[in-house]
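Objective 1b of the project was to move from sequence-level analysis to a structural picture of ligand recognition. The entry below was assembled by the postdoctoral researcher (A.K.) and checked by the PI before modelling. It contains the amino acid sequence of the target and the SMILES of the bound compound, zinc ion.
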Amino acid sequence: MNQESLNRFLRYVRVDTQSDENSPTCPSTAKQLNLTKMLQQELAVLGIESEIDEFGVLYAKLHGEPGLDPIGLNSHVDTALECSGKDVKPQVIECYDGGVIELGHGYSMSPEQFPNLAKYKGQSLVVTSGDTLLGADDKAGVAIIMSVLAYFVAHPEIKHHPICVCFTPDEEIGRGPDHFDAKKFGAKYAYTVDGDTPYDIAYETFNAASATVKIQGKAIHPGEAKGKLINAQTVAMAFDRALPEKQRPEFTEGHEGFNHLVGMEGNVEEATLHYILRNHDQAKLAQQKEDFAKAKSDVEQAYPGAKIELTITDSYRNMKEVLDVHPEALEKAREAFRKLGLTPTSKPIRGGTDGATFSFKGCPTPNLGTGSYNHHGRFEYLSVSEFETMIEIVKTILLA
Ligand SMILES: [Zn+2]
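Corresponding predicted holo structure:
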């Protein structure tokens, strides 16, 4: 076991870096800077200069062989909102017996609940103490990048590409790449190290849009309502029913897109529905948008007198569009996997990544794994051997 890399990881997860979607500042929480500043100090010890900009984004560069493409690496320092990241007490299980793991605080995990665990029998895992998340998402990524930098600094005889590093805040609240500056970053292409299995190179994200449906009804005293009342909430329910039922997230997987009702509020007079629309295929997303337009006209016909206002806004796009035209990042990663005797998969991500935005900002950026699983909750864990495999993969990608 590479104790130094593991120690890095254990050190980083102990720093509380939860982001906050209700905060207007950037970074959303000042405590994220505690880790970013710690990283800056550790980089300085390695002799690597770095800069933390006004938005809390850290940029650093390790010089490499002149003439080779600068390759970028990114991870995010914040942790998810769903579970506390305060006072994380990581537990290292040195030789997992394949049975039930008692986390603490009345929680345990077992291969019955999480079948993936069975394959780590006899190996080392890092788990939580049951009352917080682990924060391997994405501090495992941060530790992988720092370990790779430390390795190349310790081995100046090993020739490698120039390495551009950037650590971002606020990924978990979708604001991570808002202030990402591709020019300052300086990479020809990059990788986010922010996934689970180390054996996957992900480069397909959803195309994403959101829809707001505002319904204006007609409120009348219910005692005198006959023939006059139009209940906006009834119309809202009819609108939801008018959309294709099988395109709800609970019926979809793989490359299947969905329309997801994420919020609704209202009264008799007016009601509002909030949806997110997702599809890997831009043409199919366009069809989903048409389904919304059709639902609007159908429901307007069924409820004359109700007014429906439909607004659809695009958010992020599938990075595959960019990577199909600029495949160097994928080719370079696949070559590294081959050198290590590994065959990577490429599963479509059913979400977005910061890499999608990086890609559209001019830096093609697929996503790599970290060897950690069950993100965003108390059952999060890290496979130490997969974490170490990931360090080897990233190193190999960067070799000259
Ligand atoms: Zn993440």
